[in-house]
Amino acid sequence: MVKKNxxxxxxxxxxxRDRFLESGLDGFHDYEVIELLLTLGTPRKDCKDAAKxxxxxxxxxxxxxxxxxxxxCGVVGIGPKNSLGLQLIKAVSDRFLEKKLIDKNPVNNxxxxxxxxxxxxxxxxxxxxxxxxxxxxxRVISTETHSEGTxxxxxxxxxxxxxxxxxxxxxxxxxxxxxxxxxxxxxAEDIAxxxxxxxxxxxxxIAIHEHIIIGDNCYYSFxxxxxxxxMARDYHANLK
Length: 240
Hints:
Radius of gyration: 22 Å
Number of strands: 5
CATH topology of the largest domain: Cytidine Deaminase, domain 2
Distance between the termini: 84 Å
Helix content: 40-55%
Largest sheet: 5 strands, mixed
CATH architecture of the largest domain: 3-Layer(aba) Sandwich
CATH superfamily of the largest domain: Cytidine Deaminase, domain 2
């Protein structure tokens, strides 16, 4: 029975919160996760219909969390205040995963590196190029989104990458970008820009450890395929 002054979804909201407090998100449908997040910014309103509408529009939980604010606010039942929970959880998750990397050696913590990269750029509709800055002991100093590109290519300029490395006082770098198609296989352009970056790093005495391409729950590693080492050898061969 709905108590006086309670909205019709109040009991359902309490049950959702109790379920989460008891067993986390086990057994939750994606729309229920969205609904629970919407309640953070919506004290007195049933959020189930808005949650289902958002999931229908953006196709997945990830899509909802990645959606621009103006598009979220275009969903019936979601306004600037209602979208708070969705935007907050995404921002907190990004920071949490980034902080897990700080002061760690991602060369030896590839799983955490992949978790961070996959979470932050897996569902982007355009290519995002990220740089991870390392100190002389290969510990993470910082991470940065260097550029946002079109559906097929990022705008990456070696001079700007080197300038960023100097600004962060980095001794080494790891690069990553996503393929919105979901296929992480490197394009000819990906290979070319990686070669340019390795050469630029060699000129400046900055080590390039890796370039990872993030696909749909998979990735391509230039280092694992021996390409970073080969590019370094090519650089030295060109000096002779």
